[in-house]
Design brief:
- By secondary structure, this protein is mainly α.
- It has one domain: 434 Repressor (Amino-terminal Domain).
- About 55% of the residues lie in helices and about 10% in strands.
- Helix 3 (about 40-45) crosses helix 4.
- The protein starts with a helix and ends with a helix.
Length: about 110
């Protein structure tokens, strides 16, 4: 039975990739934070859990809250001051946002 569940999860992941749904900047920041849950992430960045969940929704969801560079910088400061990883955020002239943890930059 567990093999069946793994196949289903893998098929769902493949469907998401095939739809062209990409990782949002908020989702990437969450992944880089190393937090084990969205609740832990919300506590470390000092945001309410529900607001954080809206930022972390998939790109195709209507209720998703867009995450701007100022929000990311606030999250990075809060995360670093709380003992989490230091995340460097870069904003390129074409509007692309890049992020790296401190370990990646050394």
């Amino acid at each position: 039975m567990s093999g069946n569940n793994q196949t289903t999860s893998q098929e769902e992941a493949e469907r998401m990739v095939s739809k062209g749904i990409s990782e949002t900047v908020a989702q990437k920041f969450y992944r880089l934070s190393g937090c084990s849950s969205k609740v832990e992430f919300a506590k470390k960045i000092g945001y309410h859990e529900m607001a954080t969940r809206l930022y972390l929704l998939r790109e195709d969801r209507k209720s998703r809250k867009p995450c701007n560079p100022n929000t990311l910088h606030r999250w990075a400061r809060s995360l670093a001051s709380g003992g989490g990883p230091r995340i460097t955020i870069g904003l390129w002239p074409d509007g692309e946002i890049t992020m790296q943890t401190e370990e990646d930059t050394e």
